[in-house]
Amino acid sequence: EQNATSIITSKEDKEAIEKAVGWLKNNEAIGIPTETVYGLAANALNADAVSKIFAAKNRPQDNPLIVHVSSIDMLKSILPDNHVPEVYLPVIRQHWPGPLTIILPASPKIPTSVTCGHPTVAVRFPAHPVARSLIEACGFPLAAPSANSSGKPSPTLASHVFHDLQGRIPLILDGGACDVGVESTVLDGLRNPPAILRPGGLTYEALKEIEGMDGLQVYRKHFVDKELEAAPTTPGMKYRHYSPEAMVILIDRKEQEDPSFDRKFDQAWKEQLEAIQASGVGVSKIGMLRTTQDGATAVWETISVTDRNLECVSLQMGRHGHPDEVARGMFKGLRELDGRAVDLIFVEGISEDREGMAVMNRLRKAASKIIEV
Ligand code: TXA
Ligand code: MG
User: Fold this and answer.
1) What is the rounded (10 degree) CA torsion for 63, 64, 68, 72?
2) Domain ranges, residue 278
3) Is the ipTM of this complex over 0.95?
4) Are residue 102 and residue 179 in the same domain, yes or no?
5) Binding-site positions for L-threonine
């Protein structure tokens, strides 16, 4: 364990990048910004460096990592015979750099600790300028999972990484707030038909438009445990994930445009709360994570909702009907509510359109209980 973790701000400035490169060449793992979420990066070609990622975030040893490149030449350099499978050429042309990870044949150049012994390797070309300059300056690809402690919500600010990993890594590069807010979409084009293994920042709607992707499947949108036990497709999906300290109850909609949803939501959380209190669990502070109609995001209000001395903290993730805003605010909202030490979080479900598919995938996994109203 290291003593101190320093955070340095980088807007692609040379000195910050050089410091980061120094640690990476020394086979250390550091926090870096990407456009999706912060990553915990280390030299993907060095097993010793990669082992530090698993140690710092306490990641299960059988959950493989995404390898990040900064050019197509670097991509080719890690593939068998330097060959990019044809199926990926149109998606690469249209969506790289960006929030898309593709599954490729692994080669002996990639340590088995990255692939966890799978015959494939997941690769992404991030769009964030700091991530790109950093990989370029290193001259080697970076393995990087999300920079949270295993099981916690993914970090979308440098301060989130610090909260989870302080004292465990030497450096965090602060590149500001992540623009996308949820992780990349994991696409397996090697199977027929091609499949999304993890919904993410690049939408199903955008991907299925691409040449060769018309039969695109989405695997385990709802990630029912029984299915996962039968045949895990992407190892990460079998673990409990994205969970804040507080218990999360997801209140989903039966109908998307229901004018009485607000009333039903209020009724539902009060019923749930009463049931929990009746079971003898003490609750003094609750959090709400909602969408809003009015464009206001991340507005806090503290209101007293009952005469039972219960405090309620309410946070808006983004506007209803704007899943990109909700994606950007969701993990941040879960973490901010944890910071306010709430006992329970009631979060609103949104439509699975566009980025909503990734949002609902994460919320379902974070929730201990899901109800529909
Ligand atoms: O946006 C992102 O993808 C972020 C940023 C840092 O780039 N990274 C990220 O990494 O989300 P991580 O480790 O949190 O998620 C990687 C996912 C896991 O679900 C893992 O099981 C899956 O990708 N994965 C990795 N290699 C795989 C492979 N060969 N086959 C199938 N799934 C794989
Ligand atoms: Mg992760």
Assistant:
1) -150
2) 247-372
3) yes
4) yes
5) 36, 68, 124, 144, 184
